[in-house]
Amino acid sequence: MTNGLLSGLGAVKRKVFISYHHGNDRFYYDAFINSFSNTYNVVQDNSVERAVNSDRTDYVIRKIRENYITGSSCTIVLCGAQTPWRKFVDWEIKATLDKKHALIGVNLPTNPLNADNKYTVPDRLHDNIQSEFAVWIDWSTFTQSHEAVRQYIELARSSSTSLINNSGPLRQRNG
Fold this sequence. Notes:
Layout: H1 3-6, E1 15-19, H2 26-36, E2 41-42, H3 48-52, H4 57-69, E3 74-79, H5 87-98, E4 102-107, H6 123-130, E5 135-138, H7 139-142, H8 146-157
Parallel strand pairs: 1-2, 1-3, 3-4, 4-5
Helix pairs in contact: 4-5
């Protein structure tokens, strides 16, 4: 990462949204908050499912976009073993891409390699890692320091929005 991307940032406190599987990966969300909340304004953790309380997909995605994504610089998707099959994670990624905001996938230690010797990630995130819009990074590398997190956020923010691939079907239920 070049210093040019970081010059002039100084006291900028980026607002980030963290998407994750609440049932399995809360530990990593809490660890991020404990380590980085003085540097980043993390959108308050409320389970979207409980906060929006609707079965209408379009309405829920609009509410995610309006209440969580708008005003943020970046969405960070914490990818554990069950994350790829969570519909609200998919919808949060979709809302992020609709707003053309930066996207980072963070591979958690709880995400095992599959039979093809690859990590499993949500399809929409995978599409954008493949298109080189989204940044894919390992948890320990991403969280090694405040500077590392800042650099990866700025790297993700520098991606061309022309690379966004938001064409996949919406996940309709949890797997």
